Amino acid sequence: MNHKTFFAPVFLFVMFWGCRNNDPEVVMETPYGDIVIEIYVNKAPVTANNFLRYVNENRFKDAVFYRVVIPDNQPHNKVKIEVIQGGLFDDDHPDALPSIKHETTKKTGVKHLDGTISMARNEPGSASSEFFICVGDQPELDFGGKRNPDRQGFAAFGRVVKGMDVVKKIQSLPAEDQMLLQKIPIKIVKKK
Predict the structure, then answer these.
(1) Architecture of domain 22-190 in this structure
(2) pTM over 0.85
């Protein structure tokens, strides 16, 4: 065997492995297990750094999952989605930071696929502390999607790399009008 033939694939593997992104990960610790999320600071810097500021400054100490959206609990929505939503729950929470600029999926390239984490909002530029995790692919939440009348979509900024079973468990908990009957506490810590 030619040594050049052997070393070329090894070199390419090492080169590829060494070029992996260094995006940080956070762990959402819940009573049902941990959810590990990779945060895309390079692809969605405004949104990702806002989320990490909440984590690093311990502003999520009161965070909870409180909303689950499934096809059956959206009777008035023509466009159905599936997500679980969390955050500080209270718009006037003392740990809430000012709203951030809206980073569309058209700008970042981060689509709302299974396990994507994104910011909840009303109008563009109103996102602050509330986030959601997609269960299944949710293209109607991307730029141009029909879930929101302004068609600007939502600001995706990371993805679940471990713990989608926990996300699905939370999504299956008893809820009334999309609100969990019992809020699920979350401890969010930075992994690396």
Answers:
(1) Beta Barrel (2.40)
(2) yes
